[in-house]
Amino acid sequence: MLTLAAGVAACGDDEESGGSAASGGGGGGKVGLITKTETNPFFVKMKEGAQSKASELGLDVQSFAGKKDGDNESQVAAIESLIGAGAKGILLTPNNSSAIVPSVDKARQAGLLVIALDTQLEPADAADATFATDNYKAGLLIGQWAKAKFEKDGKEAKIAMLDLNPEGVSVDVQRDQGFLEGFGIDVGDKTQIGDEEDSRIVGHDVTDGAEEGGRTAMENLLQKDSGVNLVYTINEPAAAGAYEALKAAGVDKDVTIVSVDGGCPGVENVKKGVIGATSQQYPLKMAEMGVQAVSNFAKDGKKPQAPAGEEFIDTGVTLITDNPMEGVDSKDTKFGLDNCWG
Asked: Of 233, 275, 291, 324, whose CB neighbour count within 10 A is largest?
């Protein structure tokens, strides 16, 4: 996956995009926001951040979303719509990091600034800039925490990996393999999911980043090995579903779950002990920075630049847990709830 201001008018379902479109009245030019879905709280908060900043800067936001995670077709249609509407720029969380690139190229050739939010394009320089969580670091932090916990408890891990979807978009790969490296498992060239050869990994399954998907994936992996005791999840909705499957199997007390997001429901689950640790990211900040970049571009043609040697502009990540481990930087759930979203 991750407040918008007054003056937002819902326009209903957008026939071209296949997702919903909404606009806000600023009058100083249009900026498009295209998210993976419209229901995930991460993207709801992102939309709020974009609209709030746009209202401040006198811009109109037109927002679109895919029907579900992985829906590239709706995002392609949304880009076409925004080009036709004369938008100054587009903020995009791609459902397919590579398949969307031809449409992004078309938008940039038409003079629009295209900013990727949260998820890099493949290649990363297909967008003018990226504002994102360091997803590899987010995975690394929960991996390091889990490694320290299992070493402290003197336990050998049997790991279930609950990923996003079969396409393996960049955010999916980066979090997955950051976790594995944090846990001390070599993942080779870090370009694909499922290439690891390590006896501690029971297997991978996909969740579509949803609670139902998390439940089904966890059930599948428990059938493969009922001794699973460590579960990595791509996000907190998937973690919630995984917990329900573990609870139904009567093994929830024996399993540690780690995740990424830092949404309010997820942090509450850390506080309750459902999730052991999560990496918190900041979608509102991503969207605010993206809208500011489009505003600057519309005024003077300047594009945001990542630091030298980096492919994206880092919007921050914090490990949240009430069970801190020595040598792993973290904040408690009070901090997490003060800074959560959704």
From this structure: 233
Please check whether residue 141 is in contact with residue 182, taking contact to mean a CB–CB distance below 8 angstroms. yes
- What predicted TM-score, i.e. pTM, was given to this entire model? 0.80
Cα 199 vs. chain centroid, distance in angstroms?
28
Q: Count other C-beta atoms under 10 Å from residue 338's C-beta.
A: 9
Maximum C-alpha span of the chain? 61
Instruction: Please state, in angstroms and rounded to a whole number, the distance separating the CA atoms of residues 342 and 333.
Output: 15
3-state secondary structure of 62: strand
Give kind and range of the element (H or E) at residue 12: strand 8-13
Cβ atoms 149, 256 nearer than 8 A: yes
Interval 26-53 mean pLDDT: 89
Q: Which of 119-128, 160-169, 319-328 has the lowest mean pLDDT?
A: 160-169
What strand order describes the sheet that includes 256-261? 201-206, 159-163, 230-233, 256-261, 277-280, 318-320
Q: What is the DSSP string of 140-173?
A: HHHHHHHHHHHHHHT----EEEEES-TT--HHHH
Residue-range domains of the chain with CATH: 8-133+283-311 (3.40.50.2300), 135-280+317-338 (3.40.50.2300)
Cα–Cα distance between 191 and 150 in angstroms, integer? 27
Cα pseudo-dihedral 340, 174, 212, 97, rounded to 10: 100
% of the chain with per-residue pLDDT over 90: 80
Cα–Cα dist 232/239, whole Å: 8
Residues 213-227: what's their mean pLDDT? 98
